[in-house]
Amino acid sequence: MIPRYKRKEISEIWEPKNKFTIWLEIELLICEALSHRGDIPKNSFKTIKEKARFDINRIDVIEKEVKHDVIAFLTNIGENIGPDSRFVHLGVTSSDIIDTAFSFQLKQSCSILKKELKKLSNNLKVKSLNYKNAACIGRSHGIFAEPTTFGLKMLGKHCEFERHYKRLCDAEKQISICSISGAVGTYANIDPSIESFVAKKLKLRTEDVSTQVIPRDRHAFFFTTLAMIASSIENLAVEIRHLHRSEVREVEEFFSKDQKGSSAMPHKKNPVLSENLTGIARMIRSSCIPFMENISLWHERDISHSSVERTLGPDTIILCDFALSRMNNIVENLVVNEEMMIHNLEKTNGLYNSQRVMLKLIEKNISRESAYKIVQKIALQAWKENKSFKKLLEENKEIKSLLNAREINDLFDLKYFLKNINKIYKKILG
Fold first, then answer.
1. Do 77 and 105 share a domain, yes or no?
2. What is the CATH number of the domain that holds 163?
3. Does 189 share its domain with 302?
4. DSSP state of 138
5. Which string of DSSP letters, residue by residue, matches 15-33?
6. In a structure prediction context, what are the per-residue pLDDT tens digits for the chain, which is 430 residues long?
7. In the listed set 339, 367, 382, which residue is the last one of a domain according to the structure?
8. Does the annotation count 141 as an active-site position?
């Protein structure tokens, strides 16, 4: 991943040093369990534990010769251990080490992602409470519809990311798997108790049935969850981008004192952070298909999944972490313009009351079809001629024959549309 999109804490999880550290821990735990069983002399295990070390540069040199990363690793630590290294990696396969370590790295990453995800959910909750009653025009198909509140918009996003938090917890459980089952997963050369011991120490669960590798449906579930999170980040980003537009200006991304918008046009304040997140979301989603295709491995194993997991795995996780962090920054510093919200409401000339008028006419024993036709004609006139919808109703002979002045006036109360906001909030937040 390019430095621009990397955050230190989560990036370090995917550095070679952390990977080899986990590999070594797994190998030592296997040796410890074998020692408890009497399969490795106590003194030999002591020597292994004291002397087992790795050197990344040395591993790279060996790998160029042997063309096998795990063997290169084992050769390097064997150089440091000495003769007792013959007890390392007894009865297990490369996949036992690689897959269990990958699970552990995913679990490590999850702790960071969950923290950022919960932070975003809480930030949206704060925004929803701050602007609970900030009336704004709702839009369907991008067109003025009926009033809502900006707070309710944010409350919906809060709920969306709360759902993602639960999904990520489920995904974490799916991939928190230890598999130490040997060639083709039969435990022929390694007792199942060894796997249980390692799993307990690493706070992982044992695989139900391994085929030498952990079934890749678990990983597909995990990365699909990240893709869904990314899609919701884009959903929020697109909302902010639309509301940031010059002709809308209901919200704006925070613009710092010395920030520049355009290299050519000094007046520009562009929603560049939200636009960036739209692009990042596309990249995260693109990883879904390769991870789903990884499910189809030949027989008990092949390594067609390896290249995907080595590249897209870390990059997707690092990108998701960056996206969550960036969106947290956007939401925390979002500039909300309530005056423009009211201005845009007023730009409708009261047309957002058209359904109320239609329903009132239906109460007067007018068919729905006829009521719709009457209201639509007046509404389109108001829009075309930029005139007050209310005034046109008051002047219309057909309307006047059905509704008196007080009834028409009562139909234009903004509070009507917001009367159930508290009930919605209570349902969600208690």
1. no
2. 1.20.200.10
3. yes
4. E
5. SHHHHHHHHHHHHHHHHHH
6. 788 899 999 999 999 999 999 999 999 999 999 999 999 999 999 999 999 999 999 999 999 999 999 999 999 999 999 999 999 999 999 999 999 999 999 999 999 999 999 999 999 999 999 999 999 999 999 999 999 999 999 999 999 999 999 999 999 999 999 999 999 999 999 999 999 999 999 999 999 998 889 999 999 999 999 999 999 999 999 999 999 999 999 999 888 777 777 677 777 788 899 999 999 999 999 999 999 998 898 888 888 888 888 999 999 999 999 999 999 999 999 999 999 999 999 999 999 999 999 999 999 999 999 999 999 999 999 999 999 999 999 999 999 999 999 999 999 999 999 999 999 999 999 9
7. 339
8. yes
Q: What are phi and psi of 136, to 5 degrees?
A: -150, 165
Are 75 and 214 part of one and the same domain?
A: no
Judge whether 263 counts as a catalytic residue: no
CA distances from 170 to 175, 221, 223, 293, 295 (A): 9, 9, 12, 21, 19
* Tokens 């995913």 -> residue: 106
The residue behind tokens 């932070």 is: 119
How far apart are alpha carbons 6 and 8 in whole angstroms?
6
What pairs with residue 184 in β-bridges? none
Strands 177-178 and 205-206: parallel
Domain that holds residue 69: 3-81
- Residue type at 121 in one-letter notation: S
Which phi-psi region, left, alpha or beta, contains residue 334 (left: φ > 0; alpha: ψ -120 to 50)?
beta
Give yes or no: residues 154 and 242 share one domain: yes
Of 262, 286, 296, 367, which one is the catalytic site residue? 262
Query: What is the number of other CB atoms lying within 10 angstroms of the CB of residue 337?
Result: 18
Judge whether 423 lies within some domain: no
Is residue 143 assigned to a domain?
yes
| Number of domains, the chain | 3
> Exposed, middle or buried: residue 274 (CB in 10 Å: 0-12, 13-18, 19+)?
buried
Token duo for residue 160? 């969306």
242-245 LR contacts (CB < 8 Å, sep 24+): 242/142, 244/271, 244/274
Burial zone of 67 (CB within 10 Å; 0-12 exposed, 13-18 middle, 19+ buried): exposed
Q: Report the distance separating Cα 254 and Cα 273, nearest Å.
A: 10
182 falls within a domain:
yes
Do 175 and 225 belong to one domain? yes
CATH code of residue 63: 1.10.275.10
Q: Which of 140, 141, 267, 401 is flagged as catalytic?
A: 141
Boundary (domain end) residue, out of 339, 368, 397:
339
